[in-house]
């Protein structure tokens, strides 16, 4: 039961961190694309900004991890690279492949990546 309560709290905290980081990143993404910057380049720039700011919040607050900083940071970079590839595939497939507006395709990408990253961060990065 305690693990379930912990999981519920972690999900809520992770969503809180994610909503702030991704909300700001999505606003920046839309601004960049409105300025004529390619959706893939815009996503790449904001992805880097969002993932770099969320590491500390998730390590200290969400998962309350006491893992070695170097080890967890190395794992975090690997997981974020995987998340980036997922976001790139979703955005590219939906927007360029299926003609979905890039703004919607990016929102869908954010949702996919959030689930992927929570799972990997909880079970790989901060253990």
| End-to-end C-alpha gap | 19 Å
Q: Helix amount, in percent?
A: over 70%
Tell me the radius of gyration: 15 Å
Average predicted local confidence, pLDDT: 93
Number of domain modules:
1
* Shape verdict: elongated
- Can you count the beta strands? 0
Strand content: under 5%
One letter per element, helices H and strands E, the order comes to HHHH
Summarize the biggest pleated sheet: none
Extract low-pLDDT stretches: none
What structural category arises from helix and sheet content?
mainly alpha
DSSP summary: helix tally: 4
What's a concise summary of this model?
With 127 residues, the chain is mainly α. It contains four helices and no strands.
Description:
The chain has 127 residues and is mainly alpha-helical. The chain has helices at residues 2-34, 39-62, 69-97, 102-125. The chain has one domain (2-125).
Fold topology:
Blueprint: H1 2-34, H2 39-62, H3 69-97, H4 102-125
Helix pairs in contact: 1-2, 1-4, 2-3, 3-4
What keyword list fits this structure?
single chain; mainly alpha; 4 helices
């Amino acid at each position: 039961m305690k693990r379930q309560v912990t999981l519920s709290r972690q999900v809520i905290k992770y969503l809180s961190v994610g909503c702030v980081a991704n909300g700001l990143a999505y606003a920046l993404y839309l601004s960049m694309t409105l300025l004529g910057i390619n959706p893939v380049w815009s996503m790449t720039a904001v992805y880097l900004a969002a993932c770099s700011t969320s590491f500390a919040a998730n390590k200290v607050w969400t998962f309350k991890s006491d893992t070695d900083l170097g080890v967890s940071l190395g794992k975090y970079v690997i997981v974020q690279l995987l998340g980036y590839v997922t976001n790139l595939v979703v955005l590219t497939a939906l927007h360029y492949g299926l003609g979905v507006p890039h703004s919607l395709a990016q929102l869908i990408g954010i949702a996919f990546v959030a689930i992927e990253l929570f799972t990997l961060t909880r079970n790989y990065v901060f253990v």
